[in-house]
Design a protein that fits this description.
single chain; 111 residues; mainly alpha; Glycerol uptake facilitator protein
């Protein structure tokens, strides 16, 4: 069962925020704590992204379908599983979540 439009907007924004926030932190983690070189690998970055998506899909997937990525939404629109208007709502929510994550990261980490 899917949520109301407002619930979908919030779920997609929070899910995308989490994906971007955790993903960037995974990439920059070693630099932030002064860890030795080689601590952050492609595997650890992929694991962080995968866990972030997994947790958010489990938490909010029933509300919005758990897209959290504009490419997934595009796939739904192109295949006719979602109308362009509904897709635009998803895209706007995802963009808002990603921008909020980016602003918070710039405030925490810097440029």
């Amino acid at each position: 069962m899917r949520g109301s439009r407002g619930q979908i907007i919030v779920a997609e924004a929070i899910g995308t925020f989490t994906l971007i926030f955790i993903g960037v932190l995974a990439v920059t983690a070693a630099d932030l704590v002064g860890a030795p070189a080689g601590l952050v690998t492609l595997t650890t970055i992929a694991l962080a992204h995968g866990l972030a998506i997994g947790v958010m899909v489990a938490a909010a997937g029933a509300v919005s379908g758990g897209h959290f990525n504009p490419a997934i939404t595009l796939g739904f629109v192109v295949t006719g599983r979602m109308g362009i208007g509904e897709g635009a709502v998803y895209w706007a929510s995802q963009l808002a979540g990603a921008v909020l994550a980016a602003f918070l990261l710039v405030g925490l980490i810097g440029t």
